[in-house]
Amino acid sequence: MEKIQKLVEIDPNYIIVVLLVILFTMERLFNRPFRFDKRWQHLANNILFLLAFTFVNYFFAIFQVFCIQWLIDHKAGLLNYVAIPYWAKLIAGVALFDMTSYWFHRLAHKVPLLWRLHRVHHSDTSMDSSTFFRGHPVEIGVFGTASIIAVALFGMDMLTFGLYIFIFTFFAFFEHANLNFPKWLDKTVGLIFVTPNFHKVHHEQDQYYTDSNFADIFIFWDRIFGTFKYKPVTEMKYGLVEFDSNKKQSFLYLMISPFINIKRVSSDELQKEKKSNQ
User: Fold this and answer.
1) Which domain holds residue 141?
2) How far apart are CA 29 and CA 223, in angstroms?
C-alpha cells in the first residue's frame, strides 16, 4: 500500500501537464480519426476552462476533503462493516466511486438545471485530449458531491479516494484523445473498462448516443444499467447542434451559457433536419 500512497501523493497538476504534452504531440504525429484546423486555438480555449476549474476547485476541495474525513472519522458506509482484505476494499471502493459518478452523470443529462452546466463539456465540436478540460467550473459542486455521497454510503477512505482520482485522470485524458484505437481493445479490455472508442459515443451529436456510456472507468455499469451503446468512431459527429458555431465555442459564451435558455435538439429533430438538408 506504500507504493499506492506514493502514487496518489503525486501533484495532479504534474500528471495533467505530462499527459497533455504526450497526447497532444501524439495527436499531431499519428493518424487520427478526426481532423480539424486551429488546434492551438482550440487548446488555448480549453486551457481557460482548466484554469477556471483549478481556481474554483481550490476552494471546493477544502469542503470536499473536510466532509469525506468527517465521514471517515465517524465510520460511515458499508465497507467499514465488511470483513474483506484491504486490497479488495481498494478495488471495490474505486468501482463504487465510479458507480456513484455514473448515476450523477445520468442525472446531469436528465435534470434540465444540471444539463445547462454539463452541456458545456458536450459543446466541443472538435474533440481531442484537451476536451477533458472543457467543463463549467460550477459543475465541480455536482460531481464533487457525488464523491462525498459515495463515502457516506460505502465507507471508502482517503487512500481509495486518491487512487480513484489518479485512475480517473488517466482514463479521462485517453477517452477524449483524438487517436485511432484498435477494435480489439473494445472487444477485450472493453468488456470491463471504458475504452476511448466507447466514450466518444457519449460525445456524438445525436442525443440518442449522447445519453449513453456514462461511466468513466468501468463500462460494466453501462452494460448492467442498460445505457451502453456503440457507434464506429469514423461515423461520429461530435458536439451539440445548438453549439455548432464559432461564437458558441468561445470561452466567454460557454461560461454564460448555463444562464441562457438554449433549446436542446432531440434525436428526432436532428434526424428530420438531416433529411431536409439531403
Assistant:
1) 2-277
2) 34
Candidates 142, 53, 163, 4; CA nearest to 97 is: 163
Domain tally, the chain = 1
Measured N-to-C along each axis, helices 12-29 and 158-176 cross at an angle, to the nearest 10 degrees, of 20
Distance CA 170, CA 61 (A): 20
Q: Is the pTM of this model over 0.85?
A: yes
DSSP-assigned states of every residue in the chain: -HHHHHHHTS-HHHHHHHHHHHHHHHHHHS--S---S-HHHHHHHHHHHHHHHHHHHHHHHHHHHHHHHHHHHTT-SGGGG----HHHHHHHHHHHHHHHHHHHHHHHHHSHHHHHHHHHHHT-SS-SGGGGG-S-GGGHHHHHHHHHHHHHHH---HHHHHHHHHHHHHHHHHHH--S---HHHHHTGGGTB--HHHHHHHTBSSHHHHTS---SSBTHHHHHTT------GGG--BS-GGG-SSGGGSHHHHHHGGGS--PPPPHHHHHHHHHHH-
Residue range 47-77, pLDDT digits in tens: 999 999 999 999 999 999 999 999 999 999 9
* Cell numbers at 92, concatenated: 471495490
Instruction: Tell me how far apart the 2 most distant CA atoms of the chain are, in Å.
Output: 62
Q: Hey, CA dihedral for 87, 89, 92, 96, is it positive or negative? A: negative
Provide the b/e sequence for 181-213 (b: ≥16 CB within 10 Å): beeeebeeebeebbbbbbbbbbbbbbbebbebb
Residue-wise pLDDT for 113-138, tens only, equals: 999 999 999 999 999 999 999 999 99
Confidence of residue 277 (pLDDT cuts 50, 70, 90): low
